[in-house]
Amino acid sequence: MSLFRRLFYRRPPDGLVEISGNILVFDHCYSTDLLEEDELMPYIGGILKQLLGRHSIDSFMVFNFEGSKKDNQIASIFSYYDMSVMGYPRNYEGCPLLTMEMIHHFLRSSESWLSLSQDNFLLIHAEHGGWPILAFALAALLVYLKRYNDERKALEAVCKQAPDGLAEFFSPLDPVPSQLRYLKYVSKRHKSLESWPPVDRMLNLNCIIIRKVPNFDGQGGCRPIFRIYGLDPLAPNDRGTKLLFLTPKTSDFVQLYTQEDCEIIKVNVHCPVQGDIVIECVSLDEDFEHEVMMFRAMFSTAFIEDNLLVLDRNEIDILWDTKHRFPVDFRVEVIFSDMEIGTAVHKSGLSSEEKESLSKVGDAFSHLEWSSKSVHITNEDSKQKGLQTEHDGFEKIPLEETGTSSASAGNSSRTVQIHHIEPAENHSSLASVHSSPEPEASGSGPNFQGGQLSNDTSAQEEHEVDDTKVEPNPEIPRDAEAGDADAAATAAEWSDNNSDVFLSDTHTPSSSTPSSPPKFDEDILEAGMVGTRSQLTELKI
Question: Do residues 104 and 214 both lie within one domain?
Answer without folding.
Answer: no
